[in-house]
Amino acid sequence: MSFNLADKPLAERAALEDEKSRLFELWQNNLGKAKGEAARLFGERAKRKGKWAEWVRAELDGMSPPEFSNMVRSEINRLMAANK
After folding, report:
1. Total domain count, the chain
2. Percentage of the chain surpassing pLDDT 70?
3. What's the domain range around 28?
């Protein structure tokens, strides 16, 4: 099994590049919104105490598209690491 893109057929390489472009555009267009959502969710930490992690998981599961949810999750992890 090769992971070298040069070994892939042209159509498959094009599809991978299209997906990469789509994800980059989604990231560019939604990074600010993801940071805002992460800050909002992180701000609930003190108020929700022991139930916070469970609540955040439910909030993230309800977000769409999944790539956006992953962006918010990454930002929450960054905020948590910065507050240790």
Report:
1. 1
2. 98
3. 9-82
Q: Which residue has the tokens 């769409």?
A: 64
Inter-residue contact 6 to 50 (CB < 8 Å): no
User: What is the model's pTM?
Assistant: 0.82
| Tokens 């105490």 sit on residue | 49
Structure confidence at residue 2 as a pLDDT band (50, 70, 90): low
3-class DSSP state for residue 80? helix
The structure tokens listed for 20 are: 């990469």
The rounded distance, in Å, linking the Cα atoms of 9 and 11 is 6
Three-state DSSP at 31 gives helix
Per-residue tokens: 62: 């309800």
Lowest mean pLDDT among 1-5, 34-38, 61-65, 78-82: 1-5
